[in-house]
């Protein structure tokens, strides 16, 4: 009986290259971006009257002055505005800038913690950003809008796992969600994390002094809300993480 000829393998150099999508975002991130775009489109419908726009911003923006008065003497806006303000944006530059950073930092966080926890993270980081803003500007009647506080929270969360490499290897952002979670002290010992935090602080300090790096300089930027979101994500990320923290040992163990 003749031996069957083994199947020939096509040389790797002759194989067509696999197509890598330019954007490989989790569905919950695409849904987040879509929701922001839809809300922004609704904000800018041409037939809105000034009264309607004023109602929309008053009803869904975060206003610190609400919490300086007895809640029993006002409507229920104080319940949902600590979250709904994060869906509103003040202009094209505002939503584009937040959308780009959302694509970068939200993707690894969402891949790691899943869609449901990501939504909860959004809600709580938005509230943390808003209430730090209210604490600093207590009783102020200005409106707070935008997803920048949530984006800052996602940046803070990413600092706990996305930047460092436990064994010295570097991985791309698409695989960053597989990194072990660093403890807070270990994160602050990472030169990559510290360098990023320093740059982030410098950028927000410039904004606090009125120096706008990108976007519309005529629109005030709530740097304090950014800080509230970042601290929330950096300090409390472990409450959302599905993977256990892995300690990194500096010494190597020898076989007995």
Structural commentary:
- The chain is an all-alpha fold and 256 residues long.
- It has a single domain (24-239), classed as Up-down Bundle (Rhomboid-like fold), CATH 1.20.1540.
- 50% of the residues lie in helices and 0% in strands.
- It is built from nine helices and no strands.
- Helix 1 runs antiparallel to helix 4 and helix 4 packs across helix 5.
- The radius of gyration is 23 Å and the shape is globular.
- The model is unreliable at 16-22 and 248-256 (pLDDT under 50).
Write the layout of secondary structure elements.
Elements: H1 27-43, H2 50-60, H3 77-84, H4 92-113, H5 115-136, H6 148-158, H7 184-189, H8 191-208, H9 223-236
Distance between the termini: 54 Å
Q: Would you count the extended β strands for me? A: 0
Order of helices and strands: HHHHHHHHH
Q: How would you classify the helix and strand content by structural class?
A: mainly alpha
The CATH class turns out to be: Mainly Alpha
Question: Can you tell me the overall shape?
Answer: globular
CATH architecture: Up-down Bundle
Mean pLDDT: 81
Rounded radius of gyration (Å): 23 Å
Q: Largest sheet at a glance?
A: none
User: Count of helical segments?
Assistant: 9
Low-confidence stretches: 16-22, 248-256
CATH level 3 topology: Rhomboid-like fold
Helical fraction equals 40-55%
Number of domains: 1
Q: Beta-strand level of the residues, as a percent range?
A: under 5%
Name the CATH superfamily assignment. Rhomboid-like
């Amino acid at each position: 009986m003749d031996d069957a000829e083994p199947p020939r393998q096509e040389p790797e150099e002759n194989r067509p290259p696999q197509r890598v999508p330019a954007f490989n975002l989790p569905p919950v991130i695409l849904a987040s971006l879509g929701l922001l775009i839809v809300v922004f489109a609704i904000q800018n419908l041409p037939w809105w009257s000034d009264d309607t726009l004023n109602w929309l911003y008053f009803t869904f923006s975060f206003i610190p002055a609400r919490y300086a008065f007895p809640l029993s003497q006002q409507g229920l806006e104080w319940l949902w505005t600590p979250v709904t303000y994060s869906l509103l944006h003040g202009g094209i530059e505002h939503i584009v800038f937040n959308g780009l950073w959302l694509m970068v930092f939200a993707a690894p966080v969402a891949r790691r913690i899943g869609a449901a926890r990501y939504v909860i993270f959004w809600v709580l980081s938005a509230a943390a950003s808003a209430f730090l803003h209210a604490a600093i500007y207590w009783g102020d009647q200005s409106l707070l809008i935008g997803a920048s506080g949530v984006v800052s929270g996602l940046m803070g969360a990413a600092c706990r796992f996305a930047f460092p490499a436990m064994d010295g290897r570097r991985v791309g952002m698409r695989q960053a969600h597989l990194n072990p979670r660093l403890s807070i002290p270990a994160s602050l010992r990472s030169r990559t994390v510290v360098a990023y935090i320093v740059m982030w602080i410098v950028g927000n300090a410039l904004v606090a002094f009125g120096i706008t790096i990108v976007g519309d300089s005529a629109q005030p930027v709530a740097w304090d809300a950014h800080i509230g979101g970042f601290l929330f994500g950096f300090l409390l990320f472990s409450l959302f993480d599905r993977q256990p923290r892995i300690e990194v040992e500096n010494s190597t163990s020898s076989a007995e």
